[in-house]
Amino acid sequence: MFQNVLSKATPSAITVDPFPHIVIKDALSPEDYAELEATFPPLEVVAGYSTSQEMPSNRRYSMPAWPLLLRDDLHEPWKRFLRQSASCEFLAQVFTLFSGHWDSRIADRMNDAVASSHVGLLHRDTHRSGRILLDARVEVNSPVTGGPSSARGVHLDTPNRLYSGLLYFRAEDDDAVGGELELYAWADTPADNIDVFELPDHLVRKVAAIPYRANQLVLFPQGIHALHGVGIRHPTRHIRRYVFITAELEDDWLMPEQQRLQQIESPA
Asked: Which domains does the chain have, with CATH numbers?
């Protein structure tokens, strides 16, 4: 059994500025990480490209846990890791770790889901009766073959999300500049429209940057202040690799109530 990526996590290690988050260096044991790194799913599986030279510059590609788990050619250590990171037990660990930091609109719902094991796997199951769906998806950012750019600027994750975790798989020979995780705060009050791909720079201010480092986990609850983005990456032949660990509700709980009602009432 793999060492859980949260085995070193303690509430005292949580940083609250600019929003609650935790950074865990060497999240997996050296042996477990080396095994996963050596068998990281190939580009043709994650992105549909046989070589990185064919890929558009600095583009993100993603492969959810469920289709990966169906593959006969996925190495068994990866199957164990994905199942573990998208399990009810993992959800319970995250919920307990960030106790006191959850938005009041979702704390009870998470507690109920943990107590009843009312969870499923994203893309395999449905949100029936309020079920929380989990995922641990393999993602890559393609090489930067054009000018310096960001894979995605400052934003909030989807408003139905409960938490976001990134376990980095930076290659040993990756000497690329940039690609850190940038953390932001609102310059004033939160924007009226938060469900956008990128927010305008004048609405936010950068507070911190977390390096893109091998075997490092960054994890944070979703919330109106959980602003983040990917730092500018400079031209490089290297691929930025990570696993994105998350959980989602069916409804966009983070949206202001008025906007949620408008979405429900608007015609299809």
From this structure: 15-249 (2.60.120)
